[in-house]
Design goal:
Helix content is 42%, strand content 21%. The longest helix has 57 residues. It is built from 14 helices and 17 strands. It is an alpha/beta fold and 542 residues long. The protein has a five-stranded antiparallel sheet with strand order 2-1-5-4-3, with helices on both faces. A five-stranded mixed sheet has the order 7-9-10-12-11. Strands 14-13-15-16-17 form a five-stranded parallel sheet, sandwiched between helices.
Length: 542
């Protein structure tokens, strides 16, 4: 960008205007700059001599050095959109004797638009006065194109991530909504089915029909749980409540849940659990995996067969093994065992299932940091196993009564415990209200107040001061968490037990409810025995 009156210099052997380099070092530097496409210029302010490399002019589209070059020639090549920015940067640098460094777009002689990077500095004499201006120009078009591609790729990645997150949110909302909508009618089917099964006046045929209805409802509930759970688990969209879990307790709890299936199929189950062992895992999910493995071992067993559940600690791992005396799995089918919707050739058989449970179990075990596998011998049986990380500290076993079947917890209460207890139930589904009223109708000592409105429920609570609240999470006006918050701030509800009774059964719902201050979290369809046991635990009753 040297002045025009100083640009008239002959071209040396190196293809540069001006005198030849004064030393071998200067020549080497010139060769290196040329090889890297860097044009240089120099303006001596004392004698007005100038130097400009051929590469400098070639960057602007000229094959030979121009006879004249000036700042005005340079600025005319700069695109109009960048001209004010460049002029300001360069003039400020000259006025303040500061170095300059900027990027801009130029239009070459042939009309092509290119990006350049211009740098420069001032050389001062011993007195501090500016003696020379030195500058470089480099074509950086390819670099800018790469940067623009990277920026575009980054923007596209951000947009794709946002779209994926939007899709995941929509999927989660759909699954939560679908789970709620399916569980609400199932609540009436299973709840009233359990009530009818207790009717002593029912004939043998009616009892059989009621049993079929209940079993079908339970099967449908299991299918709903598994099918809605698996997509989220495969996508990693699941919250795990990792904590120390007693292996003895979770094994006993799983046994309770499969007991009806054991009795129905005349299968014996032996549990050999290390009572003082503990794993770091999600207690609900460990129980879910165990129930899946035990249920399969029972369903695919021979009538009158046996199942063994073993839990053993080995180093930093705890191993769970479920062995059965069934017919076994063919060797060529073993790779399909943990594939979702795989039934290993039994799709048309009489055994219930959607082929999701084992795929679900595999994903759960892996998310908790473990591994699952299977071994099988035809005519002998199958052996499913999984291991989980051992908890740092073993848990002391809780009261053994907590491990028994809920039906065993019903005890004879004292006269004081039989005194009337008031229960406030906030629920906007009439069938659920009728079901709970029917359940409590069989229990002496309970008075039930109901309302579909959270706001009205708070007013009823202040007026009647209930001994316990049953609370649906999704009410018409206030959600259950807001109701609970207001209850805990009130004088009458600060210390009363509040139990969530809801169709919200997605992963993390229970943990959020516990953190919010619910005393218990029961999901629909209601298990009549569990509901009665929970009520007895907190307020006593019939």
């Amino acid at each position: 960008m040297a002045g025009s009156e100083n640009a008239r210099r002959g071209e040396g052997r190196s293809g540069q205007a001006g005198p030849e380099p004064s030393s071998e070092l200067d020549e080497r530097i010139g060769v290196a700059l040329t090889a890297n496409g860097i044009g240089v210029w120099e303006l001596d302010l004392t004698d007005h001599s100038a130097y400009r490399s051929l590469t400098h002019d070639q960057i602007f589209g000229y094959q030979q050095l121009l006879p004249e070059w000036s700042y005005e020639v340079f600025i005319d090549h700069v695109l109009a959109e960048d001209r004010e920015y460049v002029d300001t940067r360069f003039r400020t640098a000259v006025d303040t004797s500061a170095p300059w460094d900027f990027e801009c777009r130029i239009r070459r002689l042939d009309g092509e638009i290119r990006w350049i990077w211009a740098t420069g500095r001032h050389v001062v004499d011993e007195a501090g006065g500016v003696r020379k201006l030195l500058g470089t120009v480099q074509d950086i078009t390819e670099r800018k194109q790469v940067e623009q591609h990277l920026v575009q790729a980054r923007l596209e990645a951000i947009a794709a991530k946002a779209e994926a997150e939007k899709a995941n949110r929509a999927k989660s909302e759909f699954l939560a909504s679908m789970s709620h909508e399916l569980r609400t009618p199932l609540n009436a089917i299973l709840g009233f089915g359990q009530i009818l099964s207790e009717d002593p006046a029912a004939s043998a045929e009616q009892t059989q029909f009621i049993g079929e209805i209940t079993r079908a409802g339970q099967h449908l509930r299991a299918l709903v749980d598994e099918i809605l759970d698996l997509p989220r688990l495969e996508a990693g969209d699941v919250e795990l409540d990792l904590r120390s879990v007693s292996c003895g307790e979770v094994s006993a709890a799983a046994r309770v849940l499969v007991e009806p299936l054991l009795q129905e199929r005349s299968i014996t189950l032996e549990v050999r659990a290390c009572q003082d062992a503990a794993v770091r895992a999600d207690p609900f999910r460990v129980k879910q995996v165990l129930v899946n493995l035990l249920a399969n071992a029972i369903k695919y067993n021979e009538p009158g067969g046996s199942v063994i559940l073993e839990v053993a600690q080995e180093g930093e791992s705890v191993w769970f093994t479920v062995s059965d005396s069934g017919e076994g799995i063919p060797r060529d089918k073993l790779e399909e065992v943990f594939v979702r919707f795989g039934r290993l050739g039994r799709e048309t058989g009489s055994i219930e299932g959607a082929g999701v449970g084992l795929a679900l179990s595999k994903r759960l075990v892996e998310l908790m940091g473990g591994t699952i596998g299977v071994e099988s011998t035809m005519g002998v049986g199958s052996r499913f196993w999984f291991w989980l990380p051992r908890a740092e500290e073993a848990l002391a076993p809780t009261d053994s009564s907590a491990l028994r079947d809920c039906s065993e917890k019903e005890t004879v209460h004292s006269e004081r415990e039989k005194a009337t207890k008031t229960i406030l139930y906030i629920e906007d589904n009439p069938a659920s209200v009728r079901l709970v009223a029917r359940i409590l109708g069989k229990e002496s000592g309970f008075r039930l107040l109901t309302t579909p409105s959270g706001t009205v429920g708070l007013e009823l609570g202040a007026r009647h001061k209930p001994d316990l609240m049953l609370l649906d999470i999704n009410t018409a006006d206030l959600n259950g968490f807001e109701v609970l918050s207001r209850v805990r701030l009130s004088e009458w509800g600060r210390d009363i037990p509040v139990i969530a009774l809801t169709a919200n059964a997605m992963a993390g719902d229970s943990s959020r409810a516990e953190a919010a201050g619910f005393n218990a979290y029961l999901t629909k369809p209601i298990d009549v025995v569990v509901l009665r046991s929970t009520l007895n635990q907190y307020v006593g009753g019939g």
